[in-house]
Each structure stands twice: as structure tokens, then as C-alpha cells.
Amino acid sequence: MNTLQNQVTEQGKTLSAQGDSLTQLSNSLSQTAADIDASGKMPGNLIVNGSFERGAAGFTGWSSTATVADLQVPHSGNKALKMSAGQSNLVGQEISITQGRTYRMGVWAKQDPGTTIKDAGNTKFRVADSTGLLVGSNYGPFSSGWQLVTFDWKATKTTTASFQLTTFLSAGAMYFDDFHVLDVTDEKDIAANAGAISQMNTRVTAAEGAITTQAQQLTKLSGDLAVTNAAVSKKAEQSAVTGLTTRMTSAEGKLDSQSQQLTSLQNSLTTMNTELGKKADTSAVSSLTGRVSQVENTITSQSQSITSLTSTINTIRTQGANPWVDGTFESYSDGQVLGGNGTAVVVASQKFTGGKSLKLRRDENNSGNSDKQLGTWQSVREDAKFRFEFWAMMPADQAPSSGWTTLVGIQSQNAAGKNAWQAAVTVSEASLGARDKWVKFTGIASNNGAGRTRAVVWISTRGATGNGTPGYSLYIDDLVITDVTDAKAAQDASDATASAVSGLTARVTDAEGKITAQAQQQTALATKVDNANSRVDNMAKTLSDSQSTQASLNTSLQSQIDAQAAANIKNQTTLDNTIKSVASITSTQQTHATALEALATQQTTLTSSVGDLSASVQNTAKTVADVNGTVSSLWSMKVETVNGKNVGAGITLGSNGETSDMILYADRFSLFNRNNATAVPVMIAEGNELYIDTARIKNSSLTTAKIADGSITNAKIGNEIRSNDFVDGSRGWRIAKDGSSQFNNVIVRGRVEANSGVFRGTVQADSFIGDIAVAKSYDSLTFRRNQTVQRNGAYQNRGYSMTVVLACTLVCQTYGTGSGLGYTSDITFNIGGQEVTRRIFVDAGNITGGTTAFELRFAARLDADYNNVGFFIRASGRTAAIDYTCTVENITATAFRTDSSSFS
């Protein structure tokens, strides 16, 4: 009985323990379910257990004032993080982040009434890594109801960072629930694009309205322009200036009158002072002094009016023809921005005349041309030309970059919005000459046509660009812009006429020089002619009389040629046969010379004939030169026979001063080797064909060739060689100079190398070299809490599109049952930059001591190349309440061909 009672007691204890375990398991399941429900409301949350439904799991930094509390009104679930007063609190969780990605850190928060922040610098979102603080953002105080606080941050480096909630309170408590960290990079980009599109739509709408308004204004301005042109044609501005000048003359006359009055009063004052010396009445002196003071005040006032009037006249004169802006800048207020986003401002601190000038500024670190537009767009002619005149000055305290320039001109535009920038003046360090010195600049800006009929004043303050580059300020005043299109055209025409007259004068002078030279030559020639006439007189007996001096010279020359010809005739030999056969040798030599040309010809002809049969050999040589630059020389040998038909052969050599020729003509062309006992023709040309008995060609180029039977030791084909029956894709063979070839029905023995190919049919091979499917295993890794280990490897691609798979088994030690015994590990796979991280949570809530294994793998596709692709598996043990050990086993890398046609 006692034994039975003891057994029942023991079984009761066992049942009680099992009941406690079941209760604990039920609680854990409830917590897990609540955590899953909360996590489902925040997709993509990088924080584990962000709802705190599993207590402290996944977080570090717990203390007596930083705990998980059960709340009657949590934000979700049943639990929340409570941070009380008394000390600095810091609770967080580590997350791997990537440089350039944007992360949103957020939490739902509230506080008890009467809660007071002791240190705002330690009550904030905090992100830090092993090197220290990366970023922080303050929050609080909160209301008694839940409110969402967030903080966006772009990661400055790739690291493992701890995302933390911190407080330092002097009274009360703060509560935090549904803590989350999200990667919102894509969301930000989409929002930015949407905002840009919305802004662009707004700008387009505004632009459409502005275009409509501008169209109306343009219509009105066209009417106003016609009226203005009519007024200008009547010299309205000149009339206004004349009127103002008249007013100034009148004022000057009054000033003279007042001056005379002052002189008179001063004389009276002198007289009165004399009388005062005689003890005159002091009241009279006082009265007189008052009158003088009044007159002086009147004169001063009128002098100021005249000065103002003169300034106004100068302003109007300067404004005169400026189509875009008031070039005196006097009508603008001090500090008024005229353009360039605030870099073209009217100021009163510097001026050449009047009281203001235009300050042009180039900002520091500027990366562009710092362009500015002044005034509104005005209609201009395509060939418009504007003269720019202004004074410029740079203060001594400016230190611009070396080589700075400021361009002043116009920016013109056509109907399509295509711009052109034409500078009239370039201001530089050299052109200014010195600092604090006003220098005048003048130049013309020419519109370059191409339909550009609207323009605006354009100023570009240029200098060194980029970070760390200095800026500068330049002041201009009295800017006058005048349309000189018609005047410039007239000036250009005048310049062209003057240039033509000057050129004509030079040509006439040159011609006069030549006439003088010719006269001298004619004088000299006349002397020679006189001598020639003497010779002609001696030869006049055989020639007709000359008709002129020149003719006498020609006649004299002809006489010489005739005399020479007569001498040659005496040398001709004619052999006559008494039988009906004739043989003759005829030789002719001729020379001909004039003031314009010289010619020499020599010809020898051998002829033999018997009846109707004849044979001839003719040798000809000829040379020509004339004053037009023509020169030529010719030599030819021709043989011919007549025996029912004409058969001839010959060779001609010629040169015309530019090219030379050697021409052979014959029915057959042969070369003989005289050293052979029997003369054998080594080469025969018949028609368009050349026959060579045996030939060796060292270097040759054949455009088209047909080779029947032959032996070629070495040959280079300029384009391609093919069989005479080649048909692309079906018959024959072809080899091209680029190495491409085509053989139909070919058998190849030996080594074959190819980059690619297609086999249609059966391929038989004893072995393959090249990756079809390969694999390699790597040593295991062991790591513990807060430790990171990594196994590296590499794959050499061989020109194929491959899929590489990394696989491993994560074996995690478990240390008994209890939520505090769980922990989290990260396994990162990276193949050639393609990366993924698997986060593994070992839930020890219902696991006894031992091990738990997880099979993990990651696949990445590689392009068809020859790169050496690196890869690695990295294991990181995250912070936990216990020190644990894990092993990464069975690390295997497998590569196999991608896009197999076996799959569909």
C-alpha cells in the first residue's frame, strides 16, 4: 500500500510538472501567435520581435528600468517596452545595412502623465556600429495616447548597426510598441518620381497659361511697337532731351540771376558792415543777414534741382535705345534682383555715374557658366546686330580663379526653342588692367540667323568649376545697347567698297609695273630685231619682204628652219632598183621655234616592197615645249608587213610632264631565254590572256582567277577563295580573308578549335572539357554569439551561362527549454555580388538540449563570360542571453549550365 501510495505521489508530481510545461508551452504559443499577428501588420520589418510579444527575445540592453510590461491598452498585442526614470536606458537590435540604402526607423510611443525628460540628447532614436554613433534623432515628450514617431536615414556605409531606443527621464515612464526598421529606398524613389511628375504637370499647366498670356501680351506689344516706332521716327526722345535741356538752360539762367542778386546783396552787406562800424542799427544787420540766408537757401535748392535735372538727362540719354533694361540702373531699387537667381543685383555700394550699378556675382564651388538673363524676351531680326557699351570694375578685395572671364551679349532662340549665345564683349583680368578702376568696353553681338527671332540680354560670369573653387563679383554701369543692324550692313558695304578700291589700285599699280617691264623687253627685243633685220637683209634675196618687226623675226626663224630642211633633203638617200622592187631609207629632221613654243622631230623610215608585198620599220622621236607649261616627249618603234592583210607590232614610250607610259602592241607577246639551246617562249600574250610556262610569283594580287591544275606553295588571298561549284548552305567550299569558311560534307581529323558551334544530330565524344556540371565542397565553419566567420571560394567561368548554387547545413546547439535560451543567427550567401541573408531563429521554447539543423541554399545566374567569380558564405551570431555555438557544415558549391532546352 505504501509503495502504491508513493507511486501515486510521484505520478502526481510528474503530472503537475507536465501541466506546468503545457501551460508554459501554451503561453509561448500565445506569445508567438501574437508576435506573428503584429509582424504581419508591418511587412518588411527588419526588427525581430518588434511588438515585444515574445518578451526580451532579439533585443539587448535590458535593465531594471527597461522592461517588457503587460498593458491594458497596448498598441497591438498585449505587451510593450517600458522605460522608467532613474537612469539612462538603451534597448536595441543589430541589423545588417547597405551603403546608399534609405532606412525608416519608427515606433509607436506614449508616456505617463508627469513624465519629464532629464537629458534630451539621450532620449532619441540611435544608430551605431562598432566605430561609434552613426546617426541620432530626438523624440518626445509624448501624449498619453499612442502616437507614431519615425526617422528616415540614408546609410553612409555597409555595416552591422544597432538600431536603439533610448531614454533618460527624471520622472515618469515612456512606453514603446511595434518598433520597426524598414528599407524604404524604393518607396522614396517612387515618391520622388511622383512628386517630380506632379511638379512637372504644374509647371506645364503654368507654362501653358503663361504662353496664352504672353501671346496676348505679344499682340498688345506688336501694336505698341508700331506706335513706338512712329514716335521714334518723329525723334520723340530727341524732343524730350531738347525739352529737358531747355529746362536746364532756364534753370541755369535763373541761377545766374540769383548769383547776381547774391553779389549785389554781398556788396550791400559790405556797405552795411562799413556803416555798422559807425555803430549802425543791429536790427538792420539781422534783417539783411536773414535775407542773404534766404537767397542762399534758394540758390542751394535750385542748384540741387539743376544737379538732379542733369542726372535725369544723363539717365535718359543712357537709357535711350536700350531695348531690354535700364542701363543706368537708376530706376531700380537697391538690392533689386534682375536675373541669374540672385547673381545679378542692383546695388548702391558701387557706381560709375549716378547712384547705382549692377553687381554680377559668380558663387564659390560653381560647376557651370553662371549664366544670367536680363530683361524680357524681345523680337529681333535674324541678322540683328547690337552694339554693347558699358563701364566695368572689379574691387581690390576680389580673388577670382586664374583665367576668369565675363561674357556680355545676347541669347537668341528660334521657334523650336533652340538657343544660341553671342558675346559682344569679354571682360578679363587683362582687359580690366587694374582693380578699383572703371574701364569702358564696347563690342557688337551678331544674331546668327537660323530662325532665331527672339532674344534677351545674356551675361556669363565664368571661372574655375567644381568644389573648392573661388567666386568673384564684377560691377557694370552705364550699359547702352543699340540696334546697329542697318548701320553695320552699311559699314560692311562701305568696307567692302573700300577694300575693292584698294585692291583695284594695287592691281593697276602692278599692271603699270608690268607695262614698264614689257616696254623694257620690247626695247631689248627691238635691239635683237635690229640685229635680226641685218641677217634678214642678208637673206632677203630668197624670202619675201617682212611686214613688221615681229613678222621679220618669225620670217627669219622660218628661214632658218627652211634652210635646215633644205640641208636635210640633201642628206636623203633614195635607192631605186631597176627591177620591180623598191627599197628606201627616208630620214627627216625638223625644228620649229617661235616666241610661244619650240618643237623638234626626227623620223627614220625603212621600206621594202616587191609588187603588192611590203614591209616597213619606222622610228620616231618628238619633243615639244611651250609657254603654257606644256612639255612632252615621245619615242616609238613600229614594224608592219602587208601580205593580203596588215600585221604590225610596236613599242611607244612617252611622257607629258605628269605621267609616263610604255605601250606595247602585238598579236603575241613572248619572252625568250637566250641561254637555252632551244629558244622556248616563257610567256605568251594572246588577246586578253597571258600564258606563262613556269612562274614563281613572290607577291601578287589577283582579283579573279581560275586555276585548273597547279601547285601554289604560298599564297595570300585578298578577299576569298572558293570552289567553282560553291552554293551557300548546300554545296562546295569557301574560305574568306576574315577567317570565316564553309565546307559542305567535310571530314576533319586531328585537333579542332572553335568558339561556338551547332551540331544537328548525334555528337559522340570520349570526354568533355568545359563546365556542364561541376561541384566542390568546402570546410565547415564554427561560430558563437557575437562572432562572424566566412568561407570564401571562386568559380572560373569558361564562356557559358551558368547557374551557381551555394548550399550548407546550419547546425545549432540548443540548451534546454525556455524563451530566454533562444537566439538568432544570420547566414549570408554572396555569388559575384548577388547576395541574400537568411536569418535563422532557434526557438528554445519547446526544444530540449541537443542540436537543430537547417538546410540552406542560394542560386545565382552568371553571364556567358570568362570571369573568375568570387563567392562566400558568412555566418554571424547575433546577441543573445546565452553564449551558444553553431556549425556551418556540408558547404557545397555547384555549377551547371543554364537555360537547358530540356526544360519548358
From TrEMBL:
- Where does the Tip attachment protein J central straight fiber domain start and stop, copy by copy? 617-758
> InterPro entries under this entry?
Galactose-bd-like_sf (IPR008979), GpJ_CSF (IPR015406), Viral_Tip_Attach_Protein (IPR053171)
Q: Which domain of life is it from?
A: Bacteria
Listed name of the protein: Gp24
Lineage of the organism: Bacteria, Pseudomonadati, Pseudomonadota, Gammaproteobacteria, Enterobacterales
